[in-house]
Specification:
Blueprint (H helix, E strand, L loop, with lengths): L29 E3 L1 H30 L8 H26 E3 L16 E7 L4 E7 L10 E3 L3 H6 L7 E6 L2 E12 L6
Parallel strand pairs: 1-2, 4-5
Antiparallel strand pairs: 3-4, 3-7, 6-7
Helix pairs in contact: 1-2
Length: 189
């Protein structure tokens, strides 16, 4: 197809390399730990303060070089600029809805599981695992960070040390025992 008949601002979802953003439950606050909020705020500051202005300057330079239809700097720059603008809009929306919850301030009922808890659990086979309940924008399964809206977190919330909870999995119901609960910041302090 001739380039003249394609939309320049068409979003190439397959090419941006980003995973789809995790969804928040309808009308639910966007709970975040202070560490997660700071990470997203730092990313927004980097994009708006350094990366986007530098890219705008590059695109302006490339546009001044003449024919834009075969100008790689211009074409790539415009595409990257759309990706950055899309990410900035996403970050602004998420940070505006953010409710920062500091898990280190939970002192009253430290044996009950709430947002920000780091929980040691054991399955029916005795295999132990540690998970931390964090915001939807902070989840990282490789580090044991699970979203507060995930099935496992939903099963664990409001339980206490010594309780056994039922977790629905594709393989069926799995019994999980709560071994320990502690509250520390996501960075591990």
């Amino acid at each position: 197809m001739n380039k003249a008949f394609t939309r320049e601002d068409a979003a190439d979802e397959d090419d941006d390399g980003l995973l789809p953003a995790p969804a928040l439950p309808v009308n639910a606050p966007n709970y975040m730990t202070p560490t997660g909020f700071a990470r997203l705020k730092a990313e927004l500051d980097r994009l708006t303060g350094a990366e986007r202005p530098a890219l705008v300057a590059t695109v302006a330079w490339a546009a001044g070089n003449g024919d834009r239809s075969e100008n790689g700097d211009y074409i790539y720059g415009k595409k990257r600029l759309r990706e950055i603008d899309r990410r900035i809009r996403f970050l602004v929306k998420r940070l505006d809805k953010a409710v920062v919850v500091d898990p280190t301030e939970r002192r009253d009922d430290s044996e009950r599981i709430y947002f920000g808890a780091t929980v040691d659990i054991a399955n029916s086979d005795g295999e132990e695992r540690t998970v931390t309940i964090v915001g939807v924008d902070e989840f990282d399964p490789a580090r044991g960070h699970i979203s507060w809206v995930s099935p496992m977190a939903t099963a664990l919330l409001r339980s206490r040390v010594g309780d056994t909870v039922a977790l629905r999995t594709p393989a069926g119901i799995e019994e999980i025992s709560i071994v320990d609960v502690r509250y520390m910041d996501v960075a591990g302090h």
